[in-house]
# Entry
Amino acid sequence: MKANIHPDYRIVVFHDLSANTYFKVGSTIKTDRTVVLDGQNWPYVTIDISSASHPYYTGKQKEFSKEGSTARFQQRFGRFIGSKK
# Structure
């Protein structure tokens, strides 16, 4: 195997800005920013969405299966179909 071809693998702190949650994960991402967490200095990366804020993982997604697509169509456009002027 060739030496010095693999990226540096280390623990990195990811900060989900929308949920204000921190995750310590092993990663090869390159960053110059650092943060002090739990009394230690860690490489730091901000992210917009994670499992703490994504609607699928939090259970806040819309459930379209509660009514059929035809019912949704009639609710939206039914008033326009019946009135032809």
